[in-house]
């Protein structure tokens, strides 16, 4: 199973290496077209003196300019795809890219779990679990320091909770500590 996942990720890494500019150009084109359209729907309170005098003018200029730039980026990406395919990572470089990709996906999944747990457990317990898990995940097993990880996570989570509450006036979820935190 691990070999199948690694081979799929390796194919994705090679594909993305080859077509990065095309993918970026297409995404940027879709975003620019969407924003250009919606820049025209900005409501104006009174009749403008000129077209330049409206809130629509500069967003339409910026997103209108992004459209040809994104098309050029995508076309150049297609032209350079053959050269980029030849320089795609292989061997150890590919293995390192696959491992980095898998670690990145795992980190994103952990963030999603943290966000999902926050309303259930509350910010402080969810943040502690996330930070401790991240510290174990990011460090080499021989260098693990569980007590330092837990202490650091507790101090940072509690400090962040009270800093947000007292200075930013954002009430983070209390969760299972509702009676304790007030």
Number of domains: 2
Shape: flat
Helix content: over 70%
Low-pLDDT regions: none
**Integer-rounded radius of gyration:** 24 Å
Taken as a percent bin, the fraction of beta residues is under 5%
- Measured distance between first and last alpha carbons: 48 Å
Description:
There is one protein chain. This protein is mainly α and 182 residues long. The protein folds into two domains: 88 residues; 91 residues, no CATH class. Helices cover 77% and strands 0% of the residues. The protein contains seven helices and no strands. The protein is flat and about 60 Å long. The two termini are 48 Å apart. The mean pLDDT is 88.
């Amino acid at each position: 199973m691990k070999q199948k996942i690694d081979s799929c990720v390796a194919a994705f890494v090679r594909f993305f290496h080859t077509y990065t500019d095309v993918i970026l150009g297409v995404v940027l084109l879709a975003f620019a077209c969407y924003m250009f359209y919606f820049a025209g729907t900005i409501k104006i309170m009174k009749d403008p003196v000129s077209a330049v005098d409206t809130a629509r003018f500069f967003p339409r200029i910026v997103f209108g300019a992004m459209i040809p730039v994104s098309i050029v980026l995508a076309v150049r990406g297609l032209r350079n795809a053959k050269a980029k395919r030849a320089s795609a990572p292989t061997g150890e470089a590919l293995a390192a890219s696959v491992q980095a990709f898998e670690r990145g996906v795992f980190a994103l999944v952990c963030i999603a779990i943290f966000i999902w747990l926050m309303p259930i457990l509350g910010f402080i317990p969810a943040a502690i679990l996330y930070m401790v898990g991240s510290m174990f995940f990011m460090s080499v097993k021989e260098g693990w320091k569980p007590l330092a990880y837990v202490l650091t996570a507790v101090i940072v989570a509690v400090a962040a909770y009270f800093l947000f509450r007292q200075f930013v006036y954002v009430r983070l979820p209390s969760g299972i500590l509702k009676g304790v935190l007030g």
